[in-house]
Amino acid sequence: MLSWFRSKPSCPVDEASKRWIEHRFSWLTDQFGINRLLDAPIVIPTEEFLPLKYECTEEGIRHLMCLVASYMDVEPGCLKLGFYDDTKPHFEGMVHSGTAGLYVQSEEGKFDIWLEINSLADPASVVGTLSHEVGHVLLLGQNRISPEEEDHEPLTDLLTVYLGLGIFQANSVVHEAIWRQGHYSGWSMGRRGYLSMDMYGYAMALYTLARKDASPDWMVHLRPDVKGALKRGIRYILETKDCEYQPALQS
């Protein structure tokens, strides 16, 4: 009787976003192989994967960059770390969308990763930015895509999910900060990245179903809105079978 009152499953993203995520997940599987998704551990914000104490110094951040690169199968020696200042005036409560990182191919086989100096306080956010910029090495630097491709930035965010580092990106989509400039101070909210929280949730649904785990332990590390989208995505795929990404349907 109670099953009669259960709501119908609904996809957490609109149709266009759904088809794009599924199509690009299939493309990533063609590029990197399904075993890369299945065998690599998902990186979570614990001391098993990250330093117990975050050191917001050049050396400490360089160590994080090398860890992220190793998780993404990129040789750390090809990366050079730099910093820049993207300071803009903020007013209390404003939404600010500045850059947090930049990628430049400096020479053949060498890449510069630049981080914005005002975005280094939160280690999880730094890992998210690093994973996106290192993702550019895999996609742009290794000539898998062209920078002229319209979706190359959101695809780079999607790659972090495919390679097991999506938790950091998803949790950093929206962030709050207290700022001070001279005699002025205030609160600001910012948005980072190219995918919405719901898009991360649906992409993670494809990821975890492909790994044949409809209730992954690592969900506890997600912010609630992303976790909710992940759960809705899992239920939608399992009950409707409406999914272009075939590995997610074979669970």
Automatic annotation (TrEMBL):
Name of this chain's protein: Uncharacterized protein
Organism: Aeoliella mucimassa
Taxonomic placement: Bacteria, Pseudomonadati, Planctomycetota, Planctomycetia, Pirellulales
